[in-house]
Design goal:
By secondary structure, this protein is an alpha/beta fold. It is 37% helix and 18% strand. It has nine helices and eight strands.
Length: 242
């Protein structure tokens, strides 16, 4: 199962991606997390893993990737990826597409191009999960990154911007004929009621409150303990769905 985690900046995509990855791995599933956010530098810390060498470098960097991408064969598996591009701990793996490293080097287009090709060609076993921590907004839809995935999760925080973006992402997903689900994040009681009134409740697959220990761990750059009831329920709901 290939899952994209999308939403606005600051909604909690990386936190949710890490929580789901650890939850699936704790249930005996092989999980690969793909860091597809060119400006996020903390996902590996949330997972308790080292940051691997960027996959972009395997294809000569941003200047060569458009020509070298053909070297990716069809049906790439977890085992086919060179070790230096994958951080690993038990059932959990992390792969990073690439980051903006220098001022003026250009847009994230090469990263999204590589990500789209990689996701289409990666072959999973029946019980494997791949979770893509996507860059904020909707540019990746314009780059057709989602062609190679199975389902889209939208992290919705208690802001009007996040609600509107979730609706736009749903339109894209429906056009692709991909199932889309909402995870309401950082929710207090009143905010939850307001958000639930403005989104399609049938698409809500989990609600996560503001958990202070999550945000402290994110601030400190330490691995998070995601074993809280709402996360466990969310993981169980997704496993039933998928």
């Amino acid at each position: 199962m290939k899952i994209v985690v999308s939403g606005k900046g600051g909604a909690g995509k990386s936190t949710i991606s890490a929580a789901l990855a650890k939850g699936f791995a704790n249930r005996g599933k092989r999980v690969m997390v793909v860091d597809n956010d060119e400006s996020n530098y903390g996902l590996h810390s949330l997972l308790g893993l080292d940051f691997p060498e960027e996959l972009m470098e395997k294809f000569g960097g941003r200047d060569e990737v458009f020509d070298e991408i053909e070297s990716i064969s069809e049906d790439v598996s977890f085992e086919d990826l060179p070790e230096k591009y994958v951080a690993k701990d038990g059932n959990l793996r992390l792969l990073a597409i690439g980051k903006i490293g220098e001022y003026g080097e250009g847009c994230a287009c090469p990263m999204n191009f590589l990500s789209g090709e990689f996701l289409q060609k990666l072959s999973l076993d029946d019980d494997d999960f791949l979770i893509v921590d996507m860059d904020a907004g909707v540019e990746h839809f314009g780059r057709e990154v989602e062609d190679g995935i199975d389902s889209i999760l939208v992290v919705v925080d208690p802001t009007r911007e996040s609600i509107k973006l979730s609706q736009r992402i749903t339109d894209f997903a429906d056009g692709l004929d991909k199932p889309v689900f909402y995870i309401l994040n950082k929710m207090e009681d009143e905010a939850r009621e307001i958000v639930e009134e403005q989104v399609d409740e049938e698409r809500i697959i989990g609600v996560v409150p503001r958990v202070e220990e999550f945000y402290r761990a994110g601030l400190d750059g330490t691995s998070m303990n995601f074993e809280v009831e709402e996360i466990e329920d969310l993981v169980d709901s997704l496993m039933e769905e998928f």
